[in-house]
Amino acid sequence: MFYREAGQFKTTYISDQELFPVKQDRWGILLIIGFSFIVIPLIANDYWLQAILIPFLIFSLAALGLNILTGYAGQLSLGTGGFMAVGAYSCYKLVTIFPETNVILLILVSGFFSAGIGLIFGIPSLKIKGFYLAVATLAAQFFFEWLFGRVKWFYNYNDSGAIEVPVRKFFDIAVTGPIATAQTRYVVVLCIVTFLALIAVNIVRGRIGRAWMAIRDMDIAAELIGIRPLTTKLIAFAISSYYAGVAGALFVFAYLGSAEVEVFDINISFEILFMIIIGGLGSISGAFLGAAFIVLIPILITNLPRMLGMPINAATVEHFNFMILGALIVLFLIFEPHGLAKIWTIMREKLRVWPFPY
Amino acid sequence: MERKIGETLLGVEHISLSFGGVKALTDISFNIREKEVFAIIGPNGAGKTSMLNVINGFYHPQQGEIHFKGLHRKQMRPHEAAVQGIARTFQNVALFKGMSTLNNIMAGRNLKMKTNLFWQALYYGPARTEEMINREYVEDIIDFLEIQSIRRTPVGKLPYGLQKRVELGRALAMAPELLLLDEPMAGMNIEEKQDMCRFIIDINEQYGTTIVLIEHDMGVVMDLSERLIVLDYGRKIAEGTPDEIRGNQVVIDAYLGVAHTN
Ligand SMILES: Nc1ncnc2c1ncn2[C@@H]1O[C@H](COP(=O)(O)OP(=O)(O)OP(=O)(O)O)[C@@H](O)[C@H]1O
Ligand SMILES: [Mg+2]
């Protein structure tokens, strides 16, 4: 009864174009943002931050990037892991070459390297589509896995072959490295993800977002109304890869602490693709819902039986995880291609007219 | 009619187009003048759609030339045709199915919108102003086509007749000088047809848009168009006013399927 548009008439197109036209939505989002920024750092313990919230946010960012490319612009990519690796390794090089420079800035800059790489791998998209394009992006995946594993310069000739995140401070607080607290890292990740998510929301609701969707839905008609297919797709590749790159940098710098190139293997590309399928193709909130879902499932499978007093071992957890994910993806693809985000919208529509649906 | 027909807007000169062995168009020439409603008729497979595809740069003819607004060209990209002010609708609706009516028509404003990625990302300043100006333009079209109530509906969910209307809206959003309509009334009932006729007349009279119309319903063609050409097997077999065409024996034969001698 309280979730209503009644009395909220839109008198100008500007207010009609607001992000969240329903007041309750606006408050809801502000509430979530306020809660994440203020309450969570105060009450969440290290396990919650390190095992759930930080990876959730980073995966959301990567999923957001892929959703721009695949969900909005309709270009299927299996190269997400590769683009994330480019972000992570360029961030590592930047941080070691410019030790005095603010690490948060460098994380944001490293995204531009993967954006450039994404641009190059986007060029074939003018000629090839769908499955074949996916195969071309797979080339990016394997090439960068090979490159960063082989060329020692990228990991500064460390004996371990891994990139070790050095301690970097921001106003005397350690932001990265072994001594950075989970709280700090969480807040840094949250700031970056919130900022980039807002930018994504703005882009998709304007001219560029419409051009992406037009190319996705009917490229011939899009061209006939003056949308340039190649430029439009390349912008999608660049922006999408930027997001993947920043996510990759955060994955190592704010989450893992040290990593070898294997963490960016093909599995992570698929995992992120599953997130947007389950969360909802072509939806910003879908990226977050999908990431939450996929981060939480294995945790639930591990903890639920334990709480019920019958713990299961790690291998079984993994099997269950695959089975449940597989089944869900098939179900979503068949019954709700727009994913959790769509289900949420439907529920909201119902709520809007409840309890008098007519 | 107070509208005055002007100079030649589009000239088609000796266009021939073939696909492999299939000759879709053979040596077609005609002129379309500013502000007129010009019809292309002919039996199925005559080459009408192919003709439109040539005009807006989607097909590249093997021979012949086109001039539009005094500019000659042998070939161009669909994008360039759009920039020059040519818009069209399709025989089989080609809308952006996953987008709302509003976004489909807003997409038609794409060429009029210029703000860069930076402002787009902030959705502020010039980007916001530009969005609002174009939104107002689009709302006028929505009012004109009487589709206010489906503004937010994904077009894939609309009935066929409304989809055709939205597609017309998207073409109008480009503020074209030349509007190509490929069977805009196919598959519609009488009322929908009447609405569509009214829209076409109003577009032509209010905005002064030149219109090329492909239509099978002869009654509609006779009512709307000032001049027309008749295609049959990729050739132009007649050109003239509706009255002239009505009595033309060659045309009657083509429609009745009399055996071809050439
Ligand atoms: N892309 C294409 N490839 C091959 N042949 C084509 C192509 N487009 C059109 N044709 C052929 O060109 C000829 C003319 O087709 P077109 O679609 O222009 O006819 P039309 O007059 O629009 O017919 P209809 O009234 O059925 O829409 C047909 O023989 C068709 O098969
Ligand atoms: Mg046709």
Features of this protein?
A: mainly alpha; ABC transporter involved in vitamin B12 uptake, BtuC; two-stranded antiparallel sheet; 4 strands; B: about 260 residues; alpha/beta; 2 domains; 4-stranded antiparallel sheet; about 40% helix; about 25% strand; binds adenosine-5'-triphosphate; binds magnesium ion
Structure description:
The complex is a heterodimer of chains A (358) and B (262). With 358 residues, chain A is mainly alpha-helical. Chain A has one domain (23-353): ABC transporter involved in vitamin B12 uptake, BtuC, CATH 1.10.3470. Helices cover 71% and strands 3% of the residues of chain A. Chain A has helices at 13-16, 23-43, 46-72, 80-97, 103-122, 130-150, 182-204, 207-217, 219-224, 229-256, 266-279, 284-307, 314-335, 339-353, and strands at residues 163-164, 168-170, 173-176, 258-259. In chain A, strands 1-4 form a two-stranded antiparallel ribbon. A two-stranded antiparallel sheet of chain A has the order 2-3. In chain A, strand 2 (168-170) and strand 3 (173-176) form a beta hairpin. In chain A, helix 8 crosses helix 10 (229-256). Chain A starts with 12 loop residues before the first helix and ends in a 5-residue tail after the last helix. By secondary structure, chain B is α/β, with parallel strands linked by helices. Chain B folds into two domains: 1-85 and 176-262, Rossmann fold (3-Layer(aba) Sandwich); 98-170, no CATH class. Chain B contains ten helices and ten strands. In chain B, the strands form two sheets. A six-stranded mixed beta sheet of chain B has the order 6-7-8-3-9-10, with helices on both faces. In chain B, helix 3 runs parallel beside helix 6. Chain B is globular, with a radius of gyration of 19 Å. The A-B interface holds A 12-14, 17, 199, 202-203, 205-208, 210-211, 213-214, 216-218, 220-228, 235, 282 and B 56, 58, 77-79, 81-83, 87-88, 90, 94-99, 103, 106-108, 110-111, 113, 115, 117, 120-123, 127-128, 130-132, 135-136, 139, 170-171, 174.
